[in-house]
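Practice problem: predict the structure.
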Amino acid sequence: MANSLLSRAADAGGALLGRLQSVRLPGVGTASAKDDPAAAARRWRAVTVLADPGRLAELPAPLAVLGDRVETRVTPAPGDKGTELAARYPGGASDEEVGRLRQALREAKQLVEVGEVLRMDPRPHGERVPTPGGRLLDGAVAASRREGVL
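Answer:
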C-alpha cells in the first residue's frame, strides 16, 4: 500500500514537472517556443565558462563522449566574461538527445570551472526516508537532470 502511494506520488511529481516546463510566459523565451521541433533540435545550445578559450582547445569529457555527432564552437564570451562553449546536432535530434546535449554542456562547464561534476546522488548522509514528499522530490530531481530546471 505504502509503495503504491509513493509510486503514485513520484509519477504525479514527474507529470507536474513536465507541465511546468512547458509553461511559456509572454515575451519570455518566445524564440524557442515558436520554433518547430525540427528547427529547435538543430539550434545551438551554449554555456558561458569562466576560463580562457585556450583551456577549451580539447573538449571536456562530457562533450567529447558525444563525438562527431555534434558540432561545437568555442568563442570568447561578450564583455570579456570568459568563453562561450556551444554545441548542436547539425542534422536534428530527438528530445532525449537534446537533453543529453544540454546535460553534457552543464557538466563540461562544471568540469572546467570546478574540476568535478557536482552531484546530489549519492547523498553523503544516506538515503531519504521513503515518504510521499521524498519520492516526489526524487522524481523531480531525476527529471530535471535532462532539462536542468526544477
